[in-house]
Each structure stands twice: as C-alpha cells, then as structure tokens.
TrEMBL record:
The keyword Transferase applies. Residues 22-313 form the Polysaccharide pyruvyl transferase domain. The lineage of its organism: Bacteria, Pseudomonadati, Pseudomonadota, Alphaproteobacteria, Hyphomicrobiales. This is Polysaccharide pyruvyl transferase family protein. It comes from Hansschlegelia zhihuaiae. Keywords: Transferase.
Length: 432
C-alpha cells in the first residue's frame, strides 16, 4: 500500500463478535459505519463465523478467516470494540453460532487481524476494545508489543485495559469512552418514537406514565433468584406506580429466556420484550424509558446516552463496569446486589429525579473517530521493521495460525482441529 487519495472509496473490516445475538457487539459496526460512511469508507464486520443475525438492521458479517487468509479484500482493519483482547477462551462468555470456535476466535480478532494487516500492508486502528487481563509471559508480551507497533492508532476503553497492555512508552494509547455512547448521534430520539409506539402496539399496551426498563442475565443468576426478582419488581410497581419493561438485549446469552421466566412469576402489569425485532427497537425501549436497572453494560450506556438515569448491577470486581462509570463520573451507579440496586431505583423514583444529563462524551468520541479516519485515509505504508515485527515474533510464542485462526498452545494438540475446547479458560501464560 502506498499513499491514498483522500476521496478514494475504501472498505474497512471491523473485528468483533458480531455473529452473536448480543446487543452491544452488534452496535459497534453500525456506529463505525455511521461515522465513516460520510468519508467514503464502508464498514464490514468480521466475526468468528460470519453467521447472520435475525435483527434486520444488524450489519452482515464475514468470517474472520476470510480476512486473515486474504480471500476477502480489505483496505484496513478496525479492532473492536468489545472485550475482545485476550489470548484464549472463556467458557460461558456467550453462546456462539454452531461451529464457532472461541478458543481461536478471540486471539484472531486482534492478534490475527494485526498479522493480516502487517502482511497485506494495510493500516490497522484500535476501536477502543477492552483488554480482559494482563498479558503474561515474555513471549506473549513481545507479540502484543509487535501488534501494537503495527497499529496506526491505538485506543482502549478504560484505564485498566491500558495498564493490562503493559508499558509502551513509545506509543500513545488513548483511553476513549465506549463508542456505543455515540448511539444518540446515529439514532436521535425523534427517530425512535415511532419505533417505540409500534413496539407498544405490538405488545397491546398503552404507554405507561412511568416505565422502568430492566435487564437481567440468566447466565449470572440462580433459578431461586428469579422469584425474588419478580416479587421485588411487583413491589416496586405497586409502591411507585411504575410499569416494568423486561428487555432481552442478548438472546445469545439467553436474556430472552430469563425475561420470560421473570415475567411468568410477576403478578403486576408489565411489558415483556423478549422478542425484539431490531436493534433499533431495543434502543428505543431503553431510550424512552424513565429509568434503567440491569446487568447489561450497554443497556446502561444506551440509556444514559439519551439522558435516562441508569443503575448497573455487577459483582465485584466488576472491572468493565467500573472503568466505564469512572470515565463519565458516575461511579455511584454501580451496585453489588439486586436488592441494593432496586432499593436505589426506588429511592430515585421517590425523589422524582427521573432525568439526568447525558454524559459529555461527544468531544472525546469525535477526536477518536478523527484519528481512526486519519489512520485509514492518510497513513502510508508502515515502515518495514514495524510491519514485519509481528510475523517474526509470532512463531516464538507457540501460537499457530490454522486456517487463518490464532490457536493458543493451551488448546492446541497433535492433530488439532479447530473446535470449542472444554476447559474453563485457556491460559495466557505462554511458557515453553
């Protein structure tokens, strides 16, 4: 790649788990496309499998393998967002499509993408992904450093992620608000009103005077907790005249099943949105509610982006939640347990404080997207030493490239076929 015309159409691939029915992961490509399309850059998601989502407004993805092996033409790689910078597999992270191999997928989404960019001489930028844990082991650190040197622009979504990458004094690694905070610029409230009205009509309900959007993740709940949740929501509805709206933001993590189980146990009027017909419908449900309480980070992010007060439930250490809340100056919105969160919600309802100022993230996000744009539009071919550092370092770690996927040695074995491993987590400490 040599210098580029500033007006030449470009096609960039954004890596992430956009083949999973999970709200936030599906929004990242849409927001990237919204920000880059006016500058002649089209955005195509690259996911572990390329499986299609049922939401019609979700961008279709291609398998990351096709990008890494070169069969899918690309002018650049955009890494993230999402919590994808890790070197192995976390069982229970989400339910992927049939055939998905998340032992290899997560390294492929950042290490593999960086390798592909280096070999194909195209720019790579980081779209504020999260870094799950410190990168342990000298070899892995060396490879991560080489990947960082490959990137034209580096950003992560919280200070802890930057610390997990280690010291890179020669590179400027920006800490940027989660890009989903930019959803309101993509879908202004006025566009959401008809979608919201259609959802209520489909559910055969009138618009309540006070609507409480709630989200609970079945993977993080015991069955015994479902009855308690239902009872507490009934109590809140009776005491404060609110109507709970149970929103399933992640069918890929069984949020729809959880919402149905809670609704079955409720006796007070409520609205069950276990079958959202689009991403826009989910956004409308959150943006036009009066209060949000839940376990979804991006449910919270979307709500507060539209000025809706939000309460997050997260067991300690809840690092992902704390990092986001610290950036927007609202650490008080995180609660350890369901009773604490619902009591806080009740206090806010009693106080009548139902509207808050949306976080002031627009300036930081504008600067972020300007840097992403400059990476793809203005960067020339990277220096040979930087471009080849990652291909040279990679064999030292024991990471193998199989069919375009980066396979950690902890899940590779003789005659290994790419498949979902049984162990709880692939170790990040690569020692020989």
């Amino acid at each position: 790649m040599t210098g580029r015309r500033s007006d030449a159409p470009l096609r960039v691939h954004i890596t992430g788990v956009s083949d999973v029915h999970n709200f936030g992961d599906a929004l990242f490509p849409l927001i990237a496309a919204h920000r880059l399309a006016p500058h002649g850059i089209s955005v195509t998601p690259a996911s572990p499998t390329g499986a299609a989502l049922s939401w019609p407004d979700a961008l279709p993805s291609v398998p990351i393998e096709s990008v890494l092996l070169g069969s899918e033409p690309t002018d650049g790689l955009l890494i993230g967002g999402g919590h994808i910078v890790m070197c192995g597999f976390r069982d229970g992270l989400f339910e992927g499509p049939s055939g998905a191999d998340y032992a290899t997928a997560l390294p492929s989404l950042w290490l593999g993408a960086s390798l592909a960019a280096a070999l194909r001489k195209v720019p790579v930028a980081w779209n504020a992904p999260g870094v799950f844990s410190p990168l342990i082991g000298a070899d892995l650190k060396a490879v991560a450093n080489a990947a960082i040197r490959t990137a034209g622009y580096l950003s992560v979504r919280d200070a802890e992620s930057r610390a997990h990458l280690g010291d890179h004094h020669e590179r400027d690694i920006q800490v940027v608000p989660d890009t989903v905070f930019g959803v309101e610029a993509m879908w202004p409230r006025a566009q959401l009103e008809p979608v919201f009205r259609a959802m209520l009509q489909r559910k055969s309900v009138e618009r309540p005077s006070t609507l409480l959007a709630v989200h609970f993740r079945g993977m993080a709940l015991q069955q015994a907790a479902l009855a308690e949740i239902a009872a507490r929501l009934d109590d809140m509805a009776g005491a404060h005249g609110v109507v709970p709206l149970l929103v399933a933001v992640g069918p890929g993590v069984r949020d729809d099943e959880t919402a149905r189980e809670i609704a079955l146990r409720m006796t007070r009027p409520h609205i069950l949105l276990d079958d959202p017909r689009s991403l826009k419908e989910i956004v409308a449900a959150l943006a036009l509610s009066d209060l949000y309480v839940g376990q979804s980070l991006h449910g919270y992010v979307v709500a507060v982006a539209y000025g809706v007060p939000g309460i997050l439930i997260g067991k300690p250490p809840a690092r992902r939640f704390r990092g986001v809340l610290k950036q927007i100056g609202r650490p008080q919105d995180l609660f350890r347990t369901l009773p604490e969160a619902l009591e806080a919600a009740a206090c806010r309802l009693r106080a009548g404080a139902i509207q808050v100022a949306a976080p002031t993230t627009a300036g930081a996000l504008d600067r972020h997207w300007a840097s992403v744009l400059a990476t793809f539009r203005e960067s020339g071919e990277p220096a040979t030493s930087e471009r080849l550092a990652l291909p040279r370092r990679l064999p030292l770690t024991g990471l193998a490239a199989e069919r375009g996927a980066m396979v950690p040695p902890a899940v590779r074995r003789p005659g290994h076929r790419v498949r979902r491993p049984k162990q709880r987590r692939a170790r990040c400490d690569i020692r020989r």
